[in-house]
Amino acid sequence: MCTLFYPQSMLVTARKHLAQHFLIDRNMVNKVVECSGAASGDFVLEIGPGLGAFTQRLVEKGVQILAIERDPRFQKLAFQYPPSQVEWLTEDILNYPIAQEIRHRLSPGRKALVVSNIPYHLTSPILERLLPLHPLISHVTLIMQEEVARRCVSLPNRKTYGSLSLFVRYYSQPTYLFSISPTCFRPSPKVNSAAIQFVLHPPMKELPPSFFFNLVRKSFQQRRKMLRSSLRSLYHPCLLEKHLVQLCLPPTTRPEELSLHAFFQLAKSLYQELRDQGS
Q1: What is the pTM of this model?
Q2: How far apart are CA 35 and CA 141, in angstroms?
């Protein structure tokens, strides 16, 4: 039995094209905010606050909040919060200059936190925008579709392991926190949800991220094939086998068998050879 945080949410018509599912379970709201570690004086970016369940709890914690909400219907909610604590903007997070605006608002030497119940269909593009911001954001606590959360924390040799898993670990240390029942939302989504946290860290810098992720994406487009086959469009099988053997990896290696470190070493080896050929 969930404890309703916002009974009035029953009176708000969720907009399907915005994938709105309002978290109304007070216990879950409190649990997510506690796991976020938000404390008095912190600066929090909240994406898609909607009816403000997280916003209200964060205000009680004494944090500064930048709330980015695409749906203009909720702009009026900003007036119920202290203006000294909550800045509520009607913006599309995918077009909003996150890094620039966070940097402008942060105190010297501080980093922001992110606490959000994000639209599930925007999970990947939101992660792509947030996770590389280690200089500005310390950690990100999100509610997302459970299946995607499992992929984020997955390890090699699992069906859920893929390019998303590697992207997430390249920029952060992910932790699956807990699952959330559909009954905790209004309207109830047709999928299970989960809370997950990403502790951001600096990425490895020995080669361009674009080179590394192009290799990863190509590898997992045919995840059941051996790398020498799935990467044939980029490298001759004999060349790829040579680099695998140099790294003490079997020439029959498949992408799902490689850890982030192993993938990175392979990419670095191939990148170095291409540079040597071009010199």
Answers
A1: 0.92
A2: 8
Burial of 44-79, coded b for 16+ CB within 10 Å and e otherwise, reads: bbbbbbbbbbbbbbbbebebbbbbbbbeeebeebbe
What fold, for 209-278?
Helicase, Ruva Protein; domain 3 (1.10.8)
CATH 3.40.50.150 in the chain is located at 7-200
Around 191, how many Cα atoms within 13 Å sit in the side-chain half-sphere? 13
Q: Average pLDDT per run of 10 along the chain, which is 279 residues long?
A: 47 65 92 97 95 93 96 87 94 96 93 96 96 98 98 96 98 98 91 97 91 96 92 92 95 96 96 76
What is the C-alpha to C-alpha distance for residues 279 and 276, in angstroms, rounded to an integer? Answer: 5
Q: Where are the alpha helices (DSSP H) in 74-173?
A: 98-105, 123-130, 146-153, 163-171
Superfamily covering domain 7-200:
Vaccinia Virus protein VP39 (3.40.50.150)
